[in-house]
What we know:
Layout: H1 4-20, H2 25-36, H3 40-45, H4 52-84, H5 91-100, H6 117-137, H7 142-147, H8 149-164, H9 169-176, H10 182-191, H11 201-220
Amino acid sequence: MITDKRKTEIIDNFLSWMIEHHHNDEDLYFTLKNVIGMTKEELNEFSIESLDEYYEKEQEKAGEETLETITAEDLVEQAVYLANAPDGVTAEDKSEAMLGMLGANIVDESVYEEPDDEKEVEESIVKEFAEFKNERTAGKTAEEVFDDAYEISVKTALRDAVCEGDYEDNVYKALLQNRGEILQKLYDAYQGTPSASVATNTDAESFVEWYAEKHLKAMTQTPIKMGM
């Protein structure tokens, strides 16, 4: 039975013979790497380091080819995404999604989904109300808070109406046009509409729907060109 020591000795002798009978390092590298199947680390164990550069060049080449493949896949994926992205996705979100595709080998199916307008409206108005409440109550006296009671009451009713109501998609799309100031825009419109009421949830929700419809019409109205 051959011992490990004897096996090592045989391999060492074999490698010495291979080195002596090959005309150049490139041929030797091809034989040891592609024919025998030896790795750089295995050759290093026998103190053969003269072929390291060939292994390293091959790794670099493989890396470049992989990068070229990934880049080509990225371009295809980005082109497909632009052709199929939902209409409601903003240019900023499209750019972010395309950047996220660089170097990725798994398609994120979520970038093809329609934006969740309802969720975005709720997130915006909840944040707006929290900022408004903090501004009007933090560090204020009871009298100062009382002076703002009307606005606080109306905005509370509007916030609840938006977050708890169940509206058509076009309502959320219209509200989302004022992202970041939805609550203030609703309040301003309420102030300018004497017939409006938020006395009940139904009243408040009706006002939100009326505002959204009015706002949507204003956005989609095409100006009439006057002839000379």
